[in-house]
Structures are given as C-alpha cells and as structure tokens.
Amino acid sequence: MSGYIMTPEEEIADLKKKIQEQSEIIDYLTKRLFGQKSEKINTDQTSLFDEDNSVFSQPEQTG
Within its chain, how far is the Cα of 9 from the centroid? Predict the structure, then answer.
C-alpha cells in the first residue's frame, strides 16, 4: 500500500490481524518444540529409578 494513509480503524484492524497471525505461529512453534513426542522407550534400558539395594546400601561416613 504505497502512498495510502490508513485510518486509525483500519490500522487497528490490520494490527489485530498481524497479532492473530503471530499468535498462531507462536502456538504452532511452541507445540512443535514442547509438544507430545512420539519417542519410544527402550525396555532393555534400565531405569534410573529402579530399586537396586546392592549398591550404596550403607551411608558413606564423612568427617
């Protein structure tokens, strides 16, 4: 729109449209970055939280 001067109402409507578009982009990218993953868990890998009392069964003596 070269040389066209927008009315305040048109400018507000244009800015609202731009905000809506940017909000949709942010939502999309946020879901891509932090959304649910389809990663599979390897059942052969041991868990960090498995109970294994054979190691560190006694507290370490310090000072």
Answer: 35
